[in-house]
Amino acid sequence: MKMLSRRALLAVALPALPALAATVARAQEPADYPTHPVTFVVPFARGGGTDILAHLLGGKLQEQLGQPFEVQNRPGEGTVIATNFVAKSPPDGYTIMMAVSTLAIDATLYKKLPYNPVKDLALVALIASVPFVLVVDPSLPVHSVDDLIKLAKQRPLSFGSGGIGAFHHLAGELFASMTGIKLTHVPYRGTVPALNDLVGGYIQLMFTDFGPAQALIAAGKLRPLAVTTTTRLAALPDVPPLAEAGVPGFDLAAWQGVIAPAQTPSDILAKLNTQLNAMVAMPDVRGRLNDLGMNPIGKGTPDELASFLRAEIVRWGKIVEAAGIAKSE
Predict the structure, then answer these.
(1) pLDDT of residue 20
(2) What's the pTM value of the predicted model, to 2 decimals?
(3) What is residue 247's DSSP assignment?
């Protein structure tokens, strides 16, 4: 048989290359995500604002993407346990987590972490900012921030938080340092356990997200004294900002977002980002966020949010250092 020349062989092969390339590309494309249930981790106990938000978003994601987003609570160590679990999970989009400002706080709070917040995790979407409310045990003889400060200078008072380094903790430390009082910090494994002890009289005050405290405030079991931002909450129009209630310059808010392992394929991150941003724009979701005392965000691409996270690490690092609560381990 006569052998084909190299030129003739190329003439035969070249027309087939585009079709071959298209076949290879299709073979490398990931299956339509998601094809099975997704684990949606919450780093706190059930019932807190983050848990409520995870169930809300998880339900919407299931409606939009056709697969369950199963909420799994992994409280402990100020979100480190849950965050490490996600950072070490396969980067395939099937393990995501509701993250809060603690993700940035822990970068300074802990001298050593089992993960790197920037290198090992990706901030997929920024859902909302979260003003917090200063609440007290109604049995305390205080009806204003000024009353609380005066009482704290007369006798020891304790405040609760969802864990060491959690926003509730840093807000309390900042409040104490700015007012010159001493408060004893009592950490819990989530917001709800801390609120339960506050209602029970075991601690005297707390900075809490509004959602889990809403019913207790309405029932008169907690007394709100102030909010941590310079603007009032729509749900608590008669409660002043701390900056107006005797602590000039106090302005602090946390945030809620969704994270995934850093090496998760960019197309999956982009899909989740698009879906979550669109959800935050939905009237029913925005209404629920407002009910929870959160301000909707729902903006930014994963690349833009990576820059945001780095800036947040710097911002919260300054607060951690000023509070003097950085851990050696």
Answers:
(1) 44
(2) 0.76
(3) -
